[in-house]
Structures are given as structure tokens and as C-alpha cells.
Design goal:
Number of domains: 1
Shape: elongated
Oligomer: single chain
Structural class: mainly alpha
Number of strands: 0
Keywords: Membrane, Transmembrane, Transmembrane helix
Distance between the termini: 11 Å
Largest sheet: none
Number of helices: 2
Length: 59
């Protein structure tokens, strides 16, 4: 396993989690905004899956 690629994956995964937490906090602060939750779920899961496949599974 390439250690450099793995470390970049860890960094990107941490950033991804931070962005996700920031999004969830903003949702609770803005009560009147309606979100397309299917689109939000698909977007976050696609980005997370891409980070996992590229950096951790090394595809």
C-alpha cells in the first residue's frame, strides 16, 4: 500500500467529515430552508465512496 496516497486519503476523509458536520450545523440553524435530501444524501455518499475507493482501496 502506498503510504503517501493513504495519508492523503486520511486528510481528505477528515475534511469531508468536517464539511459534513458544518452542513448539518447549518441545517439546524436555518429552519425555513427546505433541502432536497435525496440529492444531499447522494452527493455526500458519492464523494465519500470516491475517497474510499481511490485512496483506501487504491483503485
Amino acid at each position: 500500500m502506498d503510504v503517501g496516497k493513504f495519508l492523503w486519503g486520511v486528510v481528505l476523509a477528515i475534511l469531508f467529515v468536517c464539511f459534513f458536520v458544518a452542513f448539518v450545523r447549518s441545517v439546524f440553524r436555518s429552519r425555513g430552508v427546505k433541502y432536497n435530501w435525496l440529492g444531499v444524501l447522494l452527493s455526500f455518499s458519492t464523494i465519500g465512496l470516491a475517497i474510499y475507493l481511490v485512496f483506501f482501496r487504491q483503485l
